[in-house]
User: Fold CRIB domain-containing protein from Zizania palustris.
Amino acid sequence: MDVKNAFLHGDLHEEVYMQPLPGVDVPFGHVCRLRRALYGLKQAPRAWFERFVTVIRAAGFSPSDHDPALFVHLSSHGRTLLLLYVDDMLITGDDGEHISQVKKQLSEQFLMSDLGPLSYFLGIEVLHSAKGYYLSQSKYIRDLISRSGIIGNRTTVTPMDLHLQLCPTDVTPLEDASRYRHIVGSLVYLTVTRLDIAHAVHILSQFVSAPTLVHFRHLLHVLRYLQGT
Assistant:
């Protein structure tokens, strides 16, 4: 499910003023006081989350002790789980009737769209079968390889050589270190579903402060492995 214009639902607890918009006539020297949060306001994400917590608590949910964005509802009919990520949410549980009721309650408070059964969330593709759920980040990988600028279809069979030893000062410093950091950061998220690259990413992430050409070459090696698998 997706909340439309989520940040506009937040209540402000501080006094915040703004210049009137062009075309709005106010007396000279006057400004406008915000009553609700706006996009771009630094308090807006927090204000939205606090408002959502108030609404979901009123529906009988409690935040998880392990993740403040995971909310749990327990009843004699079973358990309902709701996960919030900014303005996107997943809801699942044992009682389909209760899930429908929760969706209705939320829709009465926020403008929402129901995207149907889960198939894609935060770069993760979700396939459901009789055996369970299958998680994949194949599209995420394709997009990452496209952004990295890899040329050709050459692949590798392992993410990293088994006995590879990298040093912080290996040869020439990389001219654009931000590119290295961006790819490493993307690979860290990819380890959610690709545990086979976790060790290689762990090694390469140790050099994000000052990567060299050697480090970058091994980073591309991981991408070529992903390209072939």
The two ends are 31 Å apart (CA to CA). The chain is about 35% helix and 20% strand. The mean pLDDT is 91.
